[in-house]
Model the fold of this input.
Amino acid sequence: MTDNTLLAMLSTITRVSASLSLIGSIGIIFDTIRKHRRARSATAVLTSSRIILWWTTADLVYVPAVFLGRAAIDAGSVDSALCSAQGWMLQFSYTSSALWATMMATSSYLVVSRRWSFAEVAVKERWFHVVAWGVPLLLATVPMLIATGSNEPFYGAAKYWCWISRKWSAFRLITFYGPIWACFLYCIVLYYLVGRRVWRVFREIKAMGTIVTTTAGGSMTVPTVASSIAPLHAPALPAHRAIAEPPRLHARHRFAFKTGLYLVSFFLVYSAATANRVSTFINPDRPVFILEALQCLFLPLQGFLNAAVYFSTKWLARRQGGLLQGSSDESSEPDVLSANASNVGRAAPHMAAITVRSEAGPLLAHFAAAGKAVDAGMGATSCVDDDREGSIVIDDDGESDEEDEESQLGMALHR
Done:
């Protein structure tokens, strides 16, 4: 096949991938807007959903640039404003996308390892915007201004589209591959720290096991540890039975699991481009077509892969018995009660105080909560440890407990 035929094939691959990313990105944006309209406050939309929204916005910037392909090059207009605009959009959007992946990893680390609340992360998100938009703006604009007046513009003919021209090819490493590889290594380190903690906690929970206590009106999930139930002005509960249930992770750890999946998509996108860049550096005159095809396939595919993670985790959150059960991103104004052990006596009538003594270590020690009495027709009620000693979030609609915490703390921030 001729070089023109190969270039046409590569151009087709990039446009197909960009089309899939466009569809996926639009789906994420519409779903996030829908949740935002139903939420009680801006911070009631999950941290991961807010970050993926801005990440998706960054991905949308490169879609028109990818669709242009080699149009300006084939027309002999490499010195045109169109070619410069295309190169700038690609440079800005890809580095911004990598930095939003870094912000996702940072939020996961702060929540799981540093024990920040979701609302505290929301307060700091303004700095996420400064970094994820400001740094790419500088990397894409400053070199172009430096090259002004040169006999060859900074953004010119590259192989697949207008990008950093050959004369300024050193900046491909300085302003593109270098920052992206640094972001990826940073994410690896953070997710290692997060994963180590999540795995340790999960092993403790798995060793302990869980029990689902089913009543006439609903169910309550509690660890299989020594416990006592003392009624507070409540009638006797209906007969119930205990059913073994697979262990479920705490909200913080499910959050880490979900955000970790975005790192996988980030790796897929840039690993092919990295492999092709290394191959080109070793043998610049002998490009490997399969590596070029993989780069053209995966590099514009970030939006689609993010959408795959976004919607698959929503499905897993609704799947019974899974680790992500109860971590849905949606909220339909859940009736949430956050009770401290010292305040159980003030709970409303028809409630029961649950005291649990754990032998599995400090994570579940002194676990206490208040549970709603089961009314006829009421949905399932689950007790989820919110990782603060003597405190629990009770979510009676099967929705996300991490969103419940954000709803409470976030509303306080906006008062």
Remarks:
- The longest strand covers residues 227-232.
